[in-house]
Amino acid sequence: MWGTAVIAAAVSFVCYHLSPNRQPALYVLEPTFETASAEFRSTMAGMTGMPWVEGNRVTIYNNGDEFYPAMLDAIESAQHSVTMEQFVFWDGLVGRRFAEAFAERSHQGVSVKLLVDAVGGTLSDEIFCILEAEGCQLAWFRPIEWYTLNRANFRTHRKSLIIDGRCAFTGGAGLADHWLGSAIDGSEWRDIQIRVEGPAVLTQQSGFAQNWFTTTGEILDGEDFFPSISAAGTTAVQTILSSPLSGSAAAAMMHMIAVQCARKYLYIANPYFIPGPVVVSMLANACRRGVSVKLMVAGRHNDTWWARQNSLRLYGQLMEAGVEIYEYQPTMLHQKTMIVDGAWATVGTANFDNRSFALSEETNVCFYDAALVEQLHRIFLADLKRCERIELSEWRNRGLLQQTKEHLASLLEDQV
After folding, report:
1. How far is 324 from 283, CA to CA, in rounded Å?
2. What are the chain's domains?
3. Cβ-proximal residues to 164 (8 Å cutoff; 6+ apart), any chain
4. Could you give the 3-state DSSP secondary structure of residue 78?
5. Is the dihedral angle over the CA atoms 226, 231, 233, 237 positive or is it negative?
6. pTM of the model
C-alpha cells in the first residue's frame, strides 16, 4: 500500500513539473488585410514584440553541402567574436570540424562562446579537449538535476551561429553527420539554413546573449558582440525569438497570424506537424475561403516515432478540410519553412507542434522580399516532386494496429 502511494506521488510530481503551463491562443479576429499589406507587418510586429529591421542581405542554403562550408568560412573569417546557441552538437566528422574551426579562431584571440542544450548535445572527450585547449568557452543550457525538474522540459532548440555580431546563420540544421551531403538518400537529411547580414543580426545576438547570461551569469558587451552595423542589403527582416519563460509564445503567434491572413496559397514544410485544435480549425477556414494549403512533412524516414504517430493521427481531419498532405520520400525532411501568397516567408527552427510553440527557445527569420520568397517557392515545388501525396481514402483504410499506435502516441501529444 505504501509502495503504491509513493509511486503514485512520484509519478504525479514528475507529470506536474513536465506538463506545459499554457493558455491556448484564441484568434477571434477574422482580418480583412492580406500578407502583402502594411497591416500584416504591423500586426506581426505588435503581437510578437519583434520589430521589422531594414537593410539586410539574406542568403538561402540547401542541405549540408551548401550550408556547412558557408558556416565554416564565416567562422574562419571571424575577427572579434563567434557565438553559437545550438540544440544538436554531436560527435563525428561535422562536430570535430566545427570544434577545430572554433579552436583555431580562439587561438587567434577571437572570443568563442558556445551554448549547447544539455539534452540535445553529446560531445566526446576528444572534442572537449580541442575546445578547452584553445580557450573556447562551452556552457550547457539547463542541465537536468532533481531540483530543476520544474524547468527541465524547457530546452533551447535554437540553431544560431553569429560572427562578429554582423553575420548570423539559422535554420533547421544542427551540427551532426546526418546533415552532410545533398539529401540523395536516407543517410543525408534534407534541410535549409539561411544567412543574415546587416542590422537584423543584432536580434539573434541578443537572443544568444540573454540565454548566455541566464546560463553563465556573464554579460556580453561592447563592439565585439554588438557593433554598429550599416545596411548590407535591401531586405526587411523580422527575427522571431520565442521563449517559454516569457509566456509570449511568439513562434505560435507568428504561425497563426500567417495562416489567418493567407488569401491565395499557404505552403508549409515542417517535419513534425502536430497542430492543436485551434490551428486545425484555422487551416480548415483557410481552405474554405479558397486558399490552397499544401503541407509537406517527413514520411517513413522519421527520427521521432511519437511525433510521426501524432502527425498521422491528424491527417484525416486536415484532409477532410481540404489540406493537401505530402510525405517526403528520399530521406528525413527537416526544414521548417512557410510561404504565404508569394509575399511573405519564414525560415527557422520552430516545428509545428506544442514543444516548439510552448516549451522550447526558438528562432525564426521572416522576410518580405519578392526574389527570396520566389526562391523558397521554387525550392518547395522542387521538393514536392520527391513526395508522395496522402489520399483520404488511404488514410481511412489504415489498420487497427496503426490506429492503436496513434492513440498511444496521443498520450504524449504535448511533449513531442
Report:
1. 11
2. 29-415 (3.30.870.10)
3. 78, 79, 80, 81, 82, 224, 227
4. coil
5. positive
6. 0.90
Q: Are strands 292-298 and 324-328 parallel, antiparallel or unpaired?
A: parallel
Contact 180, 68 (CB under 8 A): yes
Contact 43, 257 (CB under 8 A): yes
The C-alpha cell that represents 189 in the structure block? 537529411
**All three cell numbers of 69:** 562550408
Question: How many degrees, rounded to 5, is the angle at CA 354 between CA 352 and CA 359?
Answer: 120
> In this predicted structure, which of 8-12, 188-192, 406-410 has the lowest mean pLDDT?
8-12
- Per the structure block, which three cell numbers stand in for 57? 542581405
What's the CA gap between 303 and 190, in Å, rounded? 13
User: Tens digit of pLDDT for each residue in 244-268?
Assistant: 776 558 999 999 999 999 999 999 9
Give the C-alpha separation, 198 to 310, whole Å.
39
Q: In angstroms, rounded to a whole number, what is the distance separating the alpha carbons of residues 52 and 365?
A: 10
- Distance CA(156)–CA(61), nearest Å, equals 23
DSSP class of residue 243 equals -
